[in-house]
Amino acid sequence: MSATTLQVDVAIIGGGIAGLWTLNHLRQRGYNAVLFEQQALGSRQTIASQGMIHGGIKYALGGALNAGSEAIARMPDLWRSCLRGDGPVDLRGCRVLSEDFYLWSSGGLGSRVSSFFASKLLRGRVEKLARRDYPAPLQSSAFQGQVYRLVDLVLDVPSLLHTLSERYRDSIFRIDWDTCQLACEEGKAELRWPHCTLQPRQVLLSAGAGNEELMRRLGASAPAMQRRPLQQVLVKHQYRAPFYAHCSGSNPSPRLTISSHRTAGDEPVWYLGGDLATENTDAEPSELIDKAQNELRELMPWLDLGQSEWATIRLDRAEPRQSKLLKPDAAYLGPVEGVHNALVGWPTKLTLSPDLAAAVEAHLQAQGVARGPATDLSQLAALGRPPIATPCWDEAFR
Ligand SMILES: Cc1cc2nc3c(=O)[nH]c(=O)nc-3n(C[C@H](O)[C@H](O)[C@H](O)COP(=O)(O)OP(=O)(O)OC[C@H]3O[C@@H](n4cnc5c(N)ncnc54)[C@H](O)[C@@H]3O)c2cc1C
Fold it and tell me: pTM of the entire structure?
């Protein structure tokens, strides 16, 4: 039997937030786009993220806005419009964990940061709170610091993945690289199975750290990627009040970032990031857990987490390479070296995925990739559908 050839406007490889958001963005605009995932949707970074959709204030702890904080400032409003159903992607049905995100300091914030937070530049993005409005974990009379509410919100990432994968479920397929080849034919990428070949007008590599291997398969070595490691801490306890906050210390980055989640068995988990996670990437898990316990004892000595269970997870953030391994400021989209129809993207933050998808659409328009007729995808149905990744707290506390 001869192999069938299928054509689509866009083939997206990698189903984390970057791929799923772009699929929704393009499908909603009439592009004939399909997505391929080798494992589970949201595996690696997306499912391990803290779900914060932030407006960049955490990058302003040095007392000034930088390029990173400018690029991200409009994102909470954009995501809120999506949650209402009138944004670039329809997120109705996605669970919001918290509309409130706090920033606290155990002492004063420092006069430079305090006056910057009170400045016109940050009006509407940061609000200093009166004691009665403090979140439950900071309500103790022993707490002497300052608390701010930020414009940020927190989403339930499994629910986000579910919402983004349900709407265009029939366009999402599992890919097994033992039976599929990513080939480059006359400078154009295509996917080949024994029974069919897919010739996309455009390919988007959105596989996070997997982009490096996909580019290698296409014979490309640029653009280069960097991995910035983290070791996050998880604590499962009986304290039921949720808490979503950054604690500011002496660095321009948060000393500790806390988000609250529930295991499949409805047990509360605090997920700890910030400097604790970025400065202890090589620590033994037991050593980092000791540090995390000391941090919580020092910052909230009145808090009784009761009987708790602790774990750590190591992860890499995959990003376009920067000099000195710095944090990139914006979503990245660029051409794959030597392959005319392939782009590679790293959103660099969950929050910035809308920017990545908008850049893909702008590229399609600039290249004159018109919306093609719907393709009969029944030839791909036998590939199956990938599941949604398991949250890391359920993996850690099985
Ligand atoms: C601990 C942690 C916390 C974070 N918290 C936040 C936060 O609160 N807010 C925020 O804005 N950002 C946060 N981030 C950053 C954010 O999570 C990432 O920028 C974002 O999730 C990256 O998404 P992605 O789709 O590019 O990659 P990933 O989420 O890594 O997804 C890549 C997908 O591609 C698939 N894949 C890989 N290789 C292949 C292949 N060869 N073929 C097919 N599929 C493949 C993978 O299985 C996976 O599903 C956090 C990151 C980490 C690590």
Answer: 0.96
